[in-house]
Design goal:
Elements (H helix, E strand, L loop, with lengths): L1 E5 L9 E7 L6 E2 L4 E6 L4 E5 L4 E6 L6 E3 L3 E6 L38 E2 L8 E2 L2 H10 L17 H18 L24 H16 L2 E9 L1 H7 L7 H14 L5 E4 L2 E4 L5 E3 L1 E3 L2 E3 L2 E2 L7 H16 L13 E4 L19 E5 L3 E7 L2 E15 L5 H17 L2 H4 L1
Parallel strand pairs: 14-18, 18-19
Antiparallel strand pairs: 1-8, 2-4, 2-7, 3-6, 4-5, 6-8, 9-10, 11-21, 12-13, 14-17, 15-16, 19-21, 20-21
């Protein structure tokens, strides 16, 4: 019996999606809930699990194609459970949790990406998922050279990706410099390269242009002393970002219009404070949302931000986790940038940029002192608020950063 693989509804306003990559080739065996393909919409990129166990018999929508929600992407032929066990060249995949069996054999859990190296010298095989096998085959990776970091030495998809990245880096280092190339190479033929636009990059481009056209962008920049926060961070695995989120949420509570959007009927002020955190991906940008940020302490904010960022990069965010933001923050300083003029994330009316925190000499009470300083910028929609309101908001953010009792706010 065949099971259709359907393009899912990934959000209320999402009408279509793009197939980015099939993780299992035609004819490959899959388990129920095993990651089957990557799909990208205008709001999020996700890895879609298989709706059933069996054999991927057809791929109807190829990689790079965009289709409406509800479209049949492919089909899975159901097979008896015993046939789901795929034995090829010493590779065994089983849809149950790893359990020790007679003879030292094990069984891989349903939905796992990775593989478990066997302790039995008699078999000398590794339990690998189809996703790991496919990635290794695609890039010509000898899995015996890959060190597994999963439970019990299990080789995960990330292990293979890291191995490929290291190999590419080594190859680039060993590459011959342009000056040493043979004179027969035509440099004009290699002077340009066209990188195809991904659906995510197209969406980002459209949204940025739309935002610039729709909103009257103005940016104001303040300098803040992060020394109190720096001292509070000592000995704790905390970045500066959750402290900034906490300070911004407090400032929004005192100036609610910062938590609003523009409409033809009037300015819509949101009661809930949901702060979006701009997260850089390998091929674009997502803005996952920390909900009710004003109700949480710094430690909880840090945990949620880290979790959202990790799942954004591994394409495991739910569609609702990138929707409903009322204010955004971009931490461009993590790459060394001092200040920026970020573009507003519509339909919000403001976005705050945090520059790199650096020790600089400053004048305090007519004396020169060394402080951990950073520039904090605010791009805002001048249709909704004026410069005085924006500066008053930034003054409150600055005051919270510099004078809060952060030990109590952890």
């Amino acid at each position: 019996m065949a099971t259709d693989i359907i393009m899912p509804q990934l959000g209320e306003s999402v009408a279509e999606g793009t197939v980015v990559k099939w993780l299992v080739p035609v004819g490959g065996m899959v388990e129920r809930d095993q990651l089957l393909l990557e799909v990208e919409t205008e709001k999020v990129a996700l890895e879609i699990p298989s709706p059933a166990a069996g054999r991927l018999s057809e791929i109807l929508v190829k990689e790079g194609e965009t289709v409406p929600v509800g479209t049949v992407l492919g089909r899975i032929d159901g097979v008896p459970l015993t046939d789901v066990i795929n034995r090829v060249g010493g590779v065994v995949v089983r849809p149950v949790e790893p359990v020790a069996e007679k003879g030292g054999r094990g069984r891989a859990a349903t939905g796992e990406e990775g593989a478990r190296s066997e302790g039995s010298a008699q078999e000398g095989a590794m339990h690998l998922s189809p996703a790991v096998q496919h990635l290794a085959k695609q890039h010509g990776v000898d899995l015996s050279q890959v060190k597994g970091t999963g439970t019990g030495g299990r080789i995960t998809k990330k292990d293979v990706e890291d191995f490929i990245a290291r190999r590419q880096s080594e190859e680039a280092t060993q590459a011959v410099s342009p000056a040493e190339r043979p004179a027969t190479i035509n440099e004009e033929e290699t002077s340009e390269e066209i990188v195809p636009l991904t659906p995510m990059r197209k969406t980002i481009a459209e949204r940025m242009v739309t935002s610039r056209r729709a909103a009257a962008h103005v940016t104001t920049v303040f300098e803040a002393d992060f020394s109190v926060i720096a001292k509070c961070r000592e000995g704790r695995p905390l970045t500066y970002l959750p402290f900034v989120v906490h300070a911004v949420a407090r400032a929004i509570r005192t100036i609610p219009i910062m938590n609003s959007s523009w409409s033809d009927e009037g300015i819509v002020i949101k009661r809930d404070i949901h702060i979006g955190i701009a997260t850089a991906l390998e091929d674009g940008l997502l803005v996952p949302v920390v909900r009710h940020a004003d109700r949480k302490g710094v430690t909880q904010l840090a945990q949620e931000i880290a979790d959202l960022a990790e799942r954004a990069r591994s394409k495991r965010l739910r569609p609702d986790e990138v929707m409903g933001g009322t204010f955004s923050i971009t931490n461009h300083g993590r790459f060394g940038s001092l200040f920026s003029t970020p573009i507003i994330h519509q339909p919000q009316i403001a976005i705050l940029g945090v520059g790199a925190v650096q020790k600089r000499p400053v004048v305090i009470n007519d004396a020169i002192a060394i402080r951990s300083m950073a520039y904090v910028s605010l791009s805002f929609d001048h249709r909704v608020i004026d410069g005085a309101t924006a500066d008053r908001f930034m003054a409150k953010v600055k005051d919270a950063i510099e004078h809060s009792d952060w030990e109590r706010n952890l």
